[in-house]
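Entry 14. Structure prediction run on the chain below.
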Amino acid sequence: MILIKSAAVPAYGAIASSIGGRAENQDDFCCLDTRMGFLVVVCDGMGGGPGGKTASNIVKHEIARALAAAADSAEPAHVFKMAAAKAQESLIVRMQESPALNGMGSTFVALLIGKDAAFVAHAGDSRCYLFRGRKCIFRTSDHSLVAELVKTKALTEEEARISPQANVITRGLGAISNNVPEIDKVTFRKGDRFVLCTDGIWGMMQSKNLSRILSDEAAPEIIVRKLDAEIDRIGRAAGSHHDNHTLAVVDVNFDSAAKATTDFRKLLKYGAIAVAVVATLVGGIFLGVRYFSSKKSSGGSPRNVTEVVSGSHHESDGARAGEDVADSSAIKPIPMDSLRKMIRDRERDKNKGEGDAGKEGEGVSSGKEKNTGKSADEKKIPPVTIPDVDKIIAGLEDLLKFSAKEIDGEKKALDLRNTKVGSIHDEASILLKSIDKGKQPKLYEAVERVARGTSNPDTFSIDKAKNGIYSLTKNAKKVTNNLLDILKNNTDKQ
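Output returned:
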């Protein structure tokens, strides 16, 4: 375990990484001060032989290098995306140079604590939590097959945690088709606690037990030492085959400048609830008076009607309060084919619903759903300009010219394609936040369609020509051309 302290912002904590019951520790981590704030990165390598350890080390260094080189005025979300793209490129090059490393990859979660707010970037099932007192107020969403089933309520959080397929991830860096990280902007208060960890931590105990340990008032180093020992104890009791596990606990000793944003959203939320309750009561009184009058005129008597308005709040990790689930032997494993079919069916139903352009926000974000109300900080983003749109158009035009000479086969072509599609999706998703939907409805709809259309890289399939060149299929080019037409024919860019 090592102690960490930032000189850039008032934050301190502790990090530990352990081998668990494995022959090698393929996790990696780092922390450093940058011009944008304090950075903490945790990676979980994947791949046989030396692959996993190499992958996590490359990802750690590339993300740290990119953030360290960024100016203090840089947009953190953009820097994170470029860092992930660079890490992906480095992994591909390394696999080309060393065939023994083919198939390697890594999940990652990175936290940048700035004076204005914190930014969290992640790909895969390495997590970031934010605790305020005893309550978890934020948690990243896992990019995995079982997480998709939790979203559809096919599995509970606990069933997903102990599922035999819990380690099948859908996003990450390296030999994984989707390499685009999910990025969240998080506000915080003095005394809040950030936690970063690999699945070797959260996968070993129930969510409620993990939260109880992490939210304890003890110092970060005590929490890290205690949980690290507890994970090893549980692992040894189960046969000493448990995974590598890495944990970083960071306490902040100041309020983020964007703190009021969270409070403002909360005010709107509860204000809306209050208005709804008042409207319901007034409506009920009005109907009750009419009902009483009609009964009185017909000689009847009114019934006593009691209306209960209730609300509930769940922690961001989705765990059910007080949920107690038996061990994995009590839950029937779901066959891999069934898991994949359930995901495909969900995506098919989702895509059918996207035919109506009026559905707000669906498919725009590559991550979990967010509050659709715009925050005060989002409104500070400069208004969209024609060059912003032209940048996305240029990306789509570049995608149309896509071709990749065969070096390591279809995998390289897929990686290059995914990088191009992911960049377009990210640019469109960020631009969408800058557009005033009321003043520029056509532009908003056009950019939303592009963001939605590029959310699934598999839509842009590839063919292999006889000369060994991979390029987009006719159908993929048709989709790309359609998105181009939507943007180019938009009439209210100005």
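The radius of gyration is 25 Å.
Filed with the rest of this week's runs.
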